Amino acid sequence: MRFLAGRLAQSLIVLSVMSFAIYGLIGLMPGDPIDLMISANPELTPEDAKRLKALHGLDRPFLARYGAWLQAALGGDFGFSRLFGKPVGQILWPRLANTVALMGAAFLLSVAIAVPAGILAALNPRGRIDYLVNLLCFAGISMPPFWLALLLIMLFAVQLGILPASALPTASDPGLLERLRHIALPVLTLALLGVGGTARYVRAALGETLRQDFIRTARAKGVGPARLVRAHALPNAMLPVITILALDVGALFSGALITETMFAYPGMGKLIYDAIMGSDFNLALAGLLFATMVTLASNFAADAAYAGLDPRITFAGAVDRRTDRR
Amino acid sequence: MSPRALAWRRFRAHRLAAASGLLLMGLALAALLAPLADRALGVDPVAVDLMARFEPASASHPLGTDELGRDVLARLMHGGRISLFVGLAAALVAALVGTAVGLLAGFYGGRLDALLMRLTDGVIALPLLPLLIVLAAVDPVKAGVPQAIAQSELMSLWRIVAIVGLVGWTTVARLVRSATMATREREFVRAAVALGAGPARIMLRHILPNVASPLVVATTLSVGHTILFESVLSFLGLGIQPPIPSWGNMLTNAQELIWQAPALAFYPGLMIFLTVIACNFLGDGLQDAIDPRALTTK
């Protein structure tokens, strides 16, 4: 319990620091909301601009503006989006749901490929399969995400012509199959990006577990190889893998941003990118904070699961188990 | 595991790393010689020739031309100068920051260690790409950079080095910290303390040389990371700004042109991929070479 309380406090501190840092950075982006209004409406005079700045509190010092924004945000009011002409909250939620769906599908597919590959490699240390899996893992972690998307488009859309190159269905009322066809390439791209790292980690964790004494004991008792892996080694090896996978949600989100932007998928990543490129300050700010919050929440959930599954866990110990991967 | 199999394993691991090292040297050489190659072949990486768009490979354009009629090979070589330079420079920035954080955390321990490591954890957990995009979109004039410097052509270069370096230090910090903690208790460090050496001298003269090997490994690996980050930002239009070619920004228009000229989407990405995988193999090989124990237990 103390462990979880510590982690929760840490997450909240990170979130507050990030909200302050992001607010400051967004303020340093080119232009400000009133300048944008002026360029959109030539009838505004400099006096109008001054009045508008006072009205929106833009002439106040930085800390006062941050305080006012924070107070409104805590009450659920993230302001108005310039690009969409709607309150930011209304735009965020559907986009967040889309991104969670994309990330969830890609994550499941990625795990479904990576875990068996990692197990096969760990069971044949230094064998051909191990060598091949290792090579493919290196290829996976070295792949520029946007190039992978381009290659998949080249293969499935240009060469074979079996999948569309955009996530947006062209028909006004697409059926389920049509929707699935359009989402296939984004999901595949995002899933393949994560396979290399995950498989490497499964292989390392299982390999380490297989060398431990309780495995030798089980083998000496006459436990067969299949049962040895399934019932004795895997459950122990997968514990740390779960934590690592949760820590990778940040990286998964980064991958989702690229994938969504390239396939025109209406998710949070594309929203943040469009907001920053279109100087939509309120939207960019809220989007970035939501992305940070989702990442922190998934890390916290993994820590909670880990603490529940492994009673030996302590705050410092959990932190030391983490390795950083991108 | 027989000794011969062990030797085979080590040989094979090193062969990949050695091949990677050679490949990286070749790429660096090609990048360095880019201006000479321009003169020898009579091509220019930024010269637009709208009469010669999308030309197939030929004697005058060995890899053909792009959508503005520019020579693809020349652009790849010049792009390599930028991408390799940014990768190395950003990895060095990352190594400097990471070494400072790791040394301080590992040497002093206690509260400072806890604070610095929680900071590292925080940075690791963040969705980095959206934050990098914000950093790249920041107006340098508003951030207090003088107008003249902010508008110079090389600004996008230095800015991306700083941005990518500032988020890439976490791996180095962790490795240096654990190596520092192991070294701190060694006899020669105690001897130095007994002789009256101050903390700064102990860290820099006695501990740093002993954490050099993990530092080299981590820096090699982070060159790969930084090249990937640079390419992503340049691809999204926020990194190296045209007309300066980088492997990332050469792919910015590739998606719209993929039906027309798929080769344009292929070569720059292949260069990034080969460079990054070579850095990763080299780092892995160095790791094995430095720490043979990791080899037997891996």
Instruction: State the helicity of chain B in percent bands.
Output: over 70%
N-to-C terminal Cα separation of chain A, in Å? 30 Å
Spatial separation of the terminal alpha carbons of chain B: 13 Å
User: Per DSSP, what share of the residues of chain B sits in E-state strands of 2 or more residues?
Assistant: under 5%
Structural shape of chain B = globular
Count of β-strands of chain A: 0
* CATH T-level topology of chain B: MetI-like fold
The major sheet of chain A is characterized as: none
Query: Which spans of chain B of ≥5 residues are poorly predicted at pLDDT below 50?
Result: none
Kindly report the name of the CATH homologous superfamily of the largest domain in chain A: MetI-like
Order of helices and strands of chain A: HHHHHHHHHHHHHH
Listing every helix as H and every strand as E from the N terminus to the C terminus, the arrangement of chain B reads: HHHHHHHHHHHHH
**Number of separate domains of chain B:** 1
CATH level-four homologous superfamily name of chain B: MetI-like
Concise structural overview:
The complex is a heterodimer of chains A (326) and B (298). Chain A is 76% helix and 0% strand.
Characterization of the model:
- The complex is a heterodimer of chains A (326) and B (298).
- By secondary structure, chain A is mostly helical.
- Chain A folds into 2 domains: 2-74, no CATH class; 88-324, MetI-like fold (Orthogonal Bundle), CATH 1.10.3720.
- Chain A has 14 helices and no strands.
- Chain A has helices at residues 2-27, 33-40, 46-55, 62-74, 88-123, 128-141, 145-159, 176-210, 213-220, 225-247, 249-263, 268-277, 281-309, 315-320.
- The two termini of chain A are 30 Å apart.
- The model of chain A is unreliable at 315-326 (pLDDT under 50).
- Chain B has 298 residues and is mostly helical.
- Chain B has one domain: Orthogonal Bundle (MetI-like fold), CATH 1.10.3720.10.
- Chain B has helices at 3-32, 34-41, 72-108, 110-125, 128-137, 147-150, 155-167, 170-184, 187-194, 199-207, 212-235, 262-290, 292-297.
- Chain B is globular and about 75 Å long.
- The two termini of chain B are 13 Å apart.
- The model of chain B has no long low-confidence stretch (mean pLDDT 82).
